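Researcher: Going back to the complex we discussed earlier. I've cleaned up the inputs and rechecked each line, so this should be the final set. Can you rerun the prediction on the complete assembly and write out the structure?
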Amino acid sequence: MTYFPEEVVEHIFSFLPSHSDRNTVSLVCKVWYEVERLSRRAVFVGNCYAVRPERVVLRFPNVKALTVKGKPHFADFNLVPPDWGGYAGPWIEAAARSCVGLEELRMKRMVVSDENLELLARSFPRFKVLVLISCEGFSTDGLAAIASHCKLLRELDLQENDVEDRGPRWLSFFPDSCTSLVSLNFACIKGEVNSGALERLVARSPNLRSLRLNRSVSVDTLSKILVRTPNLEDLGTGNLTDEFQAESYARLTSALEKCKMLRSLSGFWDASPICVPYIYPLCHQLTGLNLSYTPTLDYSDLTKMVSRCVKLQRLWVLDCISDKGLQVVASSCKDLQELRVFPSDFYVAGASAVTEEGLVAISSGCPKLSSLLYFCHQMTNEALITVAKNCPNFIRFRLCILEPKKPDAMTGQPLDEGFGAIVRECKGLRRLSMSGLLTDKVFMYIGKYAKYLEMLSIAFAGDSDKGMMDVMNGCKNLRKLEIRDSPFGDVALLGNVAKYETMRSLWMSSCNVTLKGCQVLASKMPMLNVEIMNELDGSSEMEENHADLSKVDKLYVSEMEENHTDLSKVDKLYVYRTTAGARDDAPNFVKIL
Amino acid sequence: MAECKDSGRSPSSSMDSSTHPVLSTTSSGCRPAARRDDLSTDLQLGLSLSPASSLLVAESKSIPCTPRNRVLPDWPPIKPFLRSALTASARRQRTLFVKVYMEGVPIGRKLDLLLLDGYDSLLAKLRHMFKAFITYADVMEYHQRVPHEKAAHVLTYEDQDGDWMMVGDVPWELFLGSVKKLRIARTDKC
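Model: Rerun complete. Updated structure for the full complex:
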C-alpha cells in the first residue's frame, strides 16, 4: 500500500460525500480506520439501538454533527405503544462525556426530556444546531434551557413534536447577546408566545433565513416581524383568521412584498379565505408551499393561490383541493417535484374529494414529479399505469386509499398491475408505500423490478407467505420493511434470515407470525434483536427478558408438540440488527428474544 | 365579513359535494365571527356524524366491526401532529346545538353537544343549567334498585325519526348523529 502522511489521507477523506463511503474506507486497514475516525465530523445513527452510544462517541471523539433516529416509522401512526423506548438521554450523556466539541444534534422519533435538554445546553459550548422531529417528552422549560445557555445557537428547528406547554416565557430566555439565529421553527408549540419577546428576538437576528411561527402569533405581530426580515427565505405564518381588519392584512402584504428572497411558505393556521388574496403578490416566487394545516380553505381558494405559483417545486395540501384543483396545479406548476395530498376527513372510510383523476392530471402536467404522498378515495390500475408512463422519475411513491383493501374502482380487480407498472417503469424508486386490494402478485413484481427499493410499507395486502418472500429475496437494496395487517407468517419470517443483517429493521404487526417463529429467528440470528409486543400479555409473568438458548433449542426440536403458547400469534414484531445486544431500557410489554 | 360561499359548488370528483364534510364545515367557516346563537339547530352536519350517508353506504366495503362514524387511532396513516391539528380545526368549526326544554318551563336553552365528551358531562351540564337532578337510562336502573334516591326528572331526546327516546341507551357518537332536541321530563310521567 502506498504510504501517505495521515494529514493527506485525512484531506482526501474530506471529499467523501456520504457516510457509507466513509464507513467503507475505514474498513481498508487500521491506519485508515484511525485517520477516518478521528477526522469524522458527521455521524448518522439510523437506529439508536443498533449501537451503544458510548461506542459511537469513543470511536468518533471529534464529531461535530450527530443524527440519531429512535422509534420505528410506524410509531408515527400510533402503532408503537407509548414508553416503548428511543431515549435521547444515553446519547446526550455519552456525548457530554466524550465529545464536547459537538455542534449539531438532530433527533427523530426519540424521547427527549427537559433534563436531557438542560444537559445538552450546558455541555457543549460551541453548540449551534438543534433539530427535533416527531419527538416527545419535553416541555417549553427545556427550550428555555437551550435558549439561555447555547450562546452560539444558529438553528432551533422543532418539527411536529409533542411539546408540553409550560407558558410563553421560554422565548424570553434568549439573551440580548444572542444575535446568531439563522433558523427558528416553533410551529408545533401549542401555547402562546410573548409577541414582544419574539419581535425583539427577530430584530436582533440579522441572519435569520427561516422562521416558522405557531398558531398563536397574530397577523399584526407577523407584519411587524417581517419588516425586520427582508432576507427571509422560509416563512411559517401564525394564524390568519378573519378576525382582523383589512388594514392588518394590507400591512401584511406590504411587509411580505419586501421579502424578495422568500421562497417557501407554510403555517396558514385557521386561514380564512379572505386572507388568501393578500398572499398573491408572493406566489410567483414560491418554490415551496405547505397548506396541509388549513381545512378552512376550499378548492376555489386553494386553486386561486396555486395557479399563481408557477415556480412551485413542492406542494403539500389537503384533499379539499379536489381533483379539479389538482388539474389546476398540473397546468400551472410545471416544475413540481414533490406533491403531498393529505386527508381532511379521517373517519373510518372517510370521504375524499381526490381520486385517480387528480393523480393522472398531475402526472401528465408535471413530468418532473419524483416524490408523492397521496391520500385518496379510490384508484384504478389504468390510472397507475398512465402515471408510471408519465413520470418514470419517481423516487418516493406513497399511495394511501382511505378504505383498506379497496379494489380498482372501475374494474373491481386488485391493484397489482398498477403498482407493478410503477415499480417497472420507475427504475430509481427508493421508497414505496401501497394500499388498496393487493394480492401476492404485486409482491412478485416488486421483487422482480424494484432493484433500488430501500423502504417498503405494506398494509392489508397479500395472500400468503410467498408475497413477503418475493420481496425479501428480490429487493437487493431493501433496508426497511414495515408490514401491518397482512397474512405473512413464520415461513416468510424465516425464509431468508440472513437478509435481516443487511437491513436496518423489519416491523410486522397484526400479521400471522407466532411466538415460536420469533424464537427460532432469535436463536438463528444472534446479531438481531427480536422484540415482540403483545396486546393481551397473559404470558408476561412467565419469562424474563431473554429466553435462554437451551429452552429455545428444546422447543425448536420438539416441533411436533402441541405448544399453544408458542403458536400464539405475536401482535407486534420489531426486528433489527444490532451490535449492542438486547437493550436494557425495554418496558414490561416488550419481550426481547 | 367574508361572503358566505354556496356549499353547492362541487369539486369534479365522483363524490357528491353535499356529503363532503369539509365543504359543509367550510361554509360555516366563512363566518367564524358569527355567534353560536345564530346557528340553527338544524345545522347539517358532515357525513362523519350521520350514520346513514346514502352514497358512501352504497360504495363501502365494510371494515370489519367498526361503525362508520368512528375514528381509528392508526388509520389513515397520518402523523399525530397533523391528526390533532385537523381535529382541533374541525372541532372549532363544528357545532351541534340542540334545544333543551324542561317540562313545565316555557323558555328553553340551547347547548352545543360537541363541546361535551359523553353522557356524564351532558348530565352534569344540564344539572348545572336547570338546577335539577336529572337522570338517564343507565342511572335510572340503579335508582330503581335504590328507591329513596329516585330523581324527579329524566332526560329524553327526539331522534331523526321524530320518536322520543330515553337518553343513554346508544353509544355517544351514535346519539350525536341522531339527536334533534332534548327534553327533561318528569319521571312520574314516564
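Model: Worth noting: DSSP finds six helices and six strands in chain B.
Researcher: Good, that matches what I expected from the previous run.
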